[in-house]
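From the methods appendix. Each design record in this collection lists the tokenized structure first, followed by the designed amino acid sequence. Records were kept in a plain field format so they could be parsed without special tools. The example shown here is representative of the layout used throughout.

RECORD:
FOLD TOKENS (292 positions):
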């Protein structure tokens, strides 16, 4: 018998992809400076190219940034980036233009913590084995949730969305860890104290079984939008026994037959410049070759 492999590590649950996080921004120019020039990400060149919204590619995922009153996640987004040193230089370069905003950054052990001009927190991790083969991507979204809700939230995702979810400590606090794709997670960490009021930000998930979660949500009166044949939305994560709201967070749920599913996203190599140009290095690979 040859080498033994952990076959279960490759199983996907019903949620197959965390596709985007949506937060409003009041200024598209500052958003461009931060997300494109500072973080080194890529504006989608094909869709939503006007001045009232911007889609920003991060490997196979995106930030959606419509213009409006700023929205702030109650937690942080975790990205994997290929080069922290280059990122630090880019963030330093945009600092003068973002003076007077909430923009900030600080280096940690294997990561850089960044705050956007309106207060959203993003932790940029150096490529490492815990993120699999990902070199550029949205690895997780962390939400701070009320004390005592992690188990109920994990149960909600297991029984309603039929995805893997368990409770284990995260940064010394109980947290629900929900599988949201290959090497992607939603993490709901219990937090002491009063949390900010929910402001309407949302995330989008692709699911394999589209109809059964819809039926369960509809039966509980949780569907908030019947978007189209391939998409619906719900807002509240609830206790499945009492019906009490555990955490408000709008979910945009799409089927794998949605026309946008698995659309190839362009990711530029931010180290490539007109002053230091090398032919053939314009693209940034979002994943390294799978190890043999």
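DESIGN:
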């Amino acid at each position: 018998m040859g080498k033994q492999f952990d076959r279960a590590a490759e199983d996907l649950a019903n949620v197959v992809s965390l596709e985007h996080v949506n937060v409003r921004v009041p200024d598209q120019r500052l958003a461009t400076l931060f997300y494109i020039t500072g973080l080194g990400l890529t504006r989608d060149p094909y869709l939503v190219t006007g001045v009232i919204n911007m889609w920003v590619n991060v490997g196979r995922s995106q930030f959606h940034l419509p213009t409006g009153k700023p929205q702030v996640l109650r937690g942080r987004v975790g990205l994997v980036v290929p080069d922290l040193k280059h990122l630090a230089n880019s963030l330093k370069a945009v600092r003068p233009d973002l003076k007077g905003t909430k923009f900030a950054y600080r280096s940690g052990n294997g990561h850089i913590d960044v705050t956007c001009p309106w207060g959203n927190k993003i932790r940029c991790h150096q490529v490492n084995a815990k993120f699999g083969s990902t070199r550029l991507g949205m690895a997780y979204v962390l939400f701070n949730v009320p004390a005592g809700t992690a188990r109920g939230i994990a149960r909600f995702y297991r029984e309603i969305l039929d995805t893997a979810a368990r409770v284990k400590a995260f940064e010394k606090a109980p947290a629900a860890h929900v599988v949201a794709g290959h090497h992607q997670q939603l993490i709901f960490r219990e937090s002491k104290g009063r949390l900010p009021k929910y402001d309407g930000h949302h995330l989008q998930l692709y699911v394999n079984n589209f109809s059964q979660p819809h039926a369960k949500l509809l039966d509980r009166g949780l569907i908030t939008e019947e978007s189209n044949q391939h998409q619906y939305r719900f807002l509240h994560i609830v206790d499945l026994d009492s019906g009490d709201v555990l955490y408000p967070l709008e979910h945009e749920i799409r089927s794998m037959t949605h026309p946008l599913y698995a659309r190839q996203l362009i990711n530029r190599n931010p180290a490539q410049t007109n002053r230091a140009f090398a032919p053939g290095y314009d693209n940034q690979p979002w994943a390294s070759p799978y190890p043999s």
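APPENDIX NOTE: The longest helix spans residues 28-38.
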